TrEMBL record:
Entry superkingdom: Bacteria
InterPro entries the UniProt entry points to: AGPR, AGPR_dimerisation_dom, AGPR_type-2, NAD(P)-bd_dom_sf, Semialdehyde_DH_NAD-bd
Active site, renumbered: C115
SUPFAM superfamilies named in the record: Glyceraldehyde-3-phosphate dehydrogenase-like, C-terminal domain (SSF55347), NAD(P)-binding Rossmann-fold domains (SSF51735)
SMART domains xref list: Semialdhyde_dh
Coiled-coil parts of chain: none
Localization per record: Cytoplasm
Protein's pathway: Amino-acid biosynthesis; L-arginine biosynthesis; N(2)-acetyl-L-ornithine from L-glutamate: step 3/4
Assigned EC number: 1.2.1.38
Protein name: N-acetyl-gamma-glutamyl-phosphate reductase
Family: Belongs to the NAGSA dehydrogenase family. Type 2 subfamily.
Alphabetical list of HAMAP family matching this protein: ArgC_type2
Length: 313
């Protein structure tokens, strides 16, 4: 049986390691690797890219831009960095959006969504697309994430036995309201302005809860959380990775845990609220559907494999 040759450039980082782990168990995939001494050698990396049927870039933005600038146009690349997510020459790798799977299937360049952006887009894009929410409505969004989202440096800080006391409590960041995910959050939801976005990191390894509050009065043609839930269910009815829960679906203790989907590649949507206000919630793993899971999903689509092959649902 012939195998797909896959190169993970940056396989030592959290996202790259997770992709490598997912693919190493596949019988139809051969993972191409480089010796440690060549890990940052541009020519060696380009040689592997030329051998590969598809390359994942799990690199800082500038390193991704450098490799792409030197890669042939027909090389199939999935970039997990921020570098190309709002680039018109790239396809955005959120397969569940209307028409997006076919765009990914035909693409040579696919930008994998950011973790915070994934939850926000999943909640807002269907409402704007269906004319339920005006594109000029001022939204706010809070996103609670595990510390693995900060990469190897933040992981080391949190897992240091002598860490500072500040890491024992949740911490709000992005205080200048210029988080790097905001451009894609605005563009992919078709909103005229970005949301007021509050990211929070807390003392758990991985998982996310992204929340968007809305008054019922902001919505057009619907008057209840039940109706919004049905709209989401209809929009994502063919998705293998997104599940829409029934309105007001609560755990026994009445709370949603942000780390419940740690290790998984799927995403759940919840709708809560009352007669006047609703709360939209997306729960998933920042390293799963928020990073490596979405990357493997896009690879599967691009190569004609089963969309969820190798993923943890």
């Amino acid at each position: 049986m012939s195998k797909y040759k896959i190169f993970v450039d940056g396989a030592v980082g959290t996202t790259g390691l997770r992709i490598h782990e997912r693919l190493s168990q596949a019988e139809d995939i051969e993972l191409l690797t480089l010796p440690e001494v060549q890990r940052k050698d541009l020519n060696a990396r380009l040689t592997k890219l030329a051998e590969a049927d598809l390359t994942f870039l799990c690199l800082p933005d500038e390193a991704s831009k450098e490799l792409v600038a030197n890669a042939p146009s027909d090389a199939r690349i999935c970039d997990t960095s921020t570098a190309h997510r709002v680039n018109a020459d790239w396809v955005y790798g959120f397969a569940e959006l209307t028409g997006q799977t076919e765009k990914i299937r035909k693409a040579n360049r696919v930008a994998i969504p950011g973790c915070h952006a994934t939850g926000y887009i999943a909640l807002v894009r269907p409402l704007v697309e269906m004319g339920i929410l005006s594109a000029d409505y001022p939204l706010s969004c809070q996103s609670l994430t595990g510390y693995s989202g900060g990469g190897k440096s933040m992981i080391a800080d949190y897992e240091n036995p002598n860490r500072v006391d500040a890491l024992n409590a949740p911490r709000v960041y992005g205080l200048a309201l210029k988080h790097k995910h905001l451009p894609e959050m605005q563009m992919l939801t078709q909103m005229k302005i970005p949301p007021i976005f509050t990211p929070v990191v807390a003392d758990f390894y991985s998982g996310m809860l992204v929340t968007v509050p809305l008054p019922i009065s902001a919505l057009q043609a619907v008057k209840s959380g039940e109706e919004i839930t049905k709209l989401f269910a209809d929009y994502y009815q063919n998705s293998k990775l997104i599940t829409v829960h029934t309105f007001q679906d609560l755990p026994e203790d009445g709370m949603l845990s942000a780390n419940a989907y740690s290790g998984k590649d799927s995403l759940d949507i919840f709708v809560y609220g009352n007669d006047d206000q609703i709360l939209l919630v997306a729960r998933f793993d920042n390293l799963g559907k928020g990073a490596s899971g979405a990357a493997v999903q896009c690879m599967n689509i691009m190569l004609g494999r089963d969309e969820i092959s190798g993923l943890e649902i």
